Amino acid sequence: MAALIMVRPDRDWQSSGGLFDWTLEYLIPRVSDEKTAEWLRTIVDENLGSLWIPDLPDEAQAEIYDILRAGVVAAAAHELPPAAVDQLRELVALTY
Question: What is the C-alpha to C-alpha distance for residues 72 and 69, in angstroms, rounded to an integer?
């Protein structure tokens, strides 16, 4: 199943459902806002398959961008195949 993260109003990232879930699972323990973390958990648990970052509060958006930039690629390099790591590099590039 394909999944989508709307990174910014004019920038989206598509991936497999598995990589999408991995990405949200990466974010959940790192996001400081409890409501945002709960929403990310709901998306994974309910298999919703999409996250619209621009719909989140500004602070949550900025934090998610910072978290992705700071370490998602490095974490993925230890756990995922190279093609998935490349996709995550594309996601990070969309955050700028």
Answer: 7
pLDDT (tens, 9 = 90+) of the chain, 96 residues, equals 799 999 999 999 999 999 999 999 999 999 999 999 999 999 999 999 999 999 999 999 999 999 999 999 999 999 999 999 999 999 999 999
pTM of the model: 0.96
Give the 3-state secondary structure of the chain.
CEEEEEEECCEEEEEEHHHHHHHHHHHHHHCCCHHHHHHHHHHHHCCCCEEEHHHCCHHHHHHHHHHHHHHHHHHHHHHCCHHHHHHHHHHHHHCC
